[in-house]
Amino acid sequence: MKKDIQPSNGQLMNESDELPAKLAKPAQRALAQAGITRLHQLSEITEAELAKLHGIGPNAIKLIRSALDAAGKAFAHTEAAEEQKP
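Now predict its structure.
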């Protein structure tokens, strides 16, 4: 699952767009191999897609979710989840 996700026009690269510093090395390597280098890129994939990457475990997901929350972002939603909403 390699995604080359480029920032959209007007999307600034700043410190709040950095991946969590405390992310374990296996998780860092998994993200790098998937082409994910910035926090905003994680808001374009689902949590389930992220969890499928070798090296991404519950701790990494927790850290990334917290970082996304702090930046006012969230993981992408699946269509199935959207369809279940009343």
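The two ends are 31 Å apart (CA to CA).
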